[in-house]
Amino acid sequence: MAPGTEQGPVLIGLTGQYCAGKNYVATLLEARGIPVLDVDKLGHLALEQEKTAITGRFGTGILTADGRIDRKALGSLVFGKPQDLADLEAIVHPRANQLTEAWILQHRDKKAVAINAALLHRSVVFPQLRCIILVQAGLVTRLIRAKKRDKLPLFALLKRFKSQHQFTAQYFQGNADTYIVKNRGVLGICARWHRHQLERRIDAILQWEGIGR
C-alpha cells in the first residue's frame, strides 16, 4: 500500500521525550480528523497474543492472578539485560508490526493517519513516514509529570531519560520532515495561551505537509 495516494493515507509519525506530552498532541490530531494509533496500547495487545511464546521463554511468573501478562514484572525482568530484551522483542515486534499494518489498512480511506510511538524508529512504517512530530518539554516539567504518573524513584526516572536520548538524532536522518513541538505544560493564566500556540503549531505543520483542514 503506497502512503499518500488513493491506495493509502499519508503516514505521520508522533514521538517525543519521556513524559513530554505527546499524547496531548495526539488528541489535537484526532480533533482534526486524523486517526492516531497508540503503539503502546497495541503493544499490550501483541503481548497477550504472544503470551504462550513469552511464558515459554520467561516463565509463568510474569502472569497476573487472572492469567494476563504483568507488564511491570516483565519489564523489570528484562530491564538492563540486553539478551533477554532482544528475545522479548523478537517475539513481540513481528506481531506488533502485523497489527500496525492491519490498522493502517483499516484506515486506508483516510487522508492521513498518525503513529504514536515512543520508539518510533523501530516501527515497520518508519521508512514510509511523510513527516515526524517530535514533542519536547523541559527536564523539570517532564520529571514532575513522570513522578506523578509512574511513581518511580528519581534515579530510575533519570535512567529512562538517558536511555531515550540516544534515539532523537535518528528522526533527523531519514527522508521524513521532522518538526519539533514544545509542550511546556504551563499552568495558570498562561495555560490557555500555550494551548492556543500549540494548536497553531500543529495546524501549521499539517498545512505545510498538505494535509490540513
Rounded to an integer, what's the Rg over CA atoms? Answer: 18 Å
Largest sheet: 5 strands, parallel
- Series of H and E elements: EHEHHHHEEHHEH
| Shape descriptor | globular
Q: Give the full name of the CATH homologous superfamily of the largest domain.
A: P-loop containing nucleotide triphosphate hydrolases
- Quote the beta fraction: 5-15%
Which CATH-level-2 architecture of the largest domain?
Answer: 3-Layer(aba) Sandwich
Average pLDDT for all residues: 86
Question: What's the arrangement of strands in the largest beta sheet?
Answer: 2-3-1-4-5
Q: Would you state the CATH class of the largest domain?
A: Alpha Beta
Query: What structural class do helix, strand and pairing data support?
Result: alpha/beta
The share of residues in helices is: 40-55%
* Total domains: 2
Strand segment count: 5
Number of helices: 8
The stretches of 5 or more residues where confidence is low (pLDDT under 50) are 1-5
**Do you know the CATH topology of the largest domain?**
Rossmann fold
Q: How many angstroms separate the termini? A: 24 Å
Oligomer: single chain
Organism: Gracilinema caldarium
Protein name: Dephospho-CoA kinase
Catalytic activity: 3'-dephospho-CoA + ATP = ADP + CoA + H(+)
Family: Belongs to the CoaE family.
Written overview of the protein:
- The chain is an alpha/beta fold and 213 residues long.
- It contains 8 helices and 5 strands, in the order βαβααααββααβα.
- The chain has 2 domains: 1-35 and 112-213, P-loop containing nucleotide triphosphate hydrolases (Rossmann fold, 3-Layer(aba) Sandwich), CATH 3.40.50.300; 43-106, no CATH class.
- α2 crosses α5 (82-106).
- The longest helix is centred in the middle third of the chain and has 25 residues, at 82-106.
- The relative contact order is 0.20.
- Mean pLDDT is 86; it is low at 1-5.
- Keywords: ATP-binding, Coenzyme A biosynthesis, Cytoplasm, Kinase, Nucleotide-binding, Transferase.
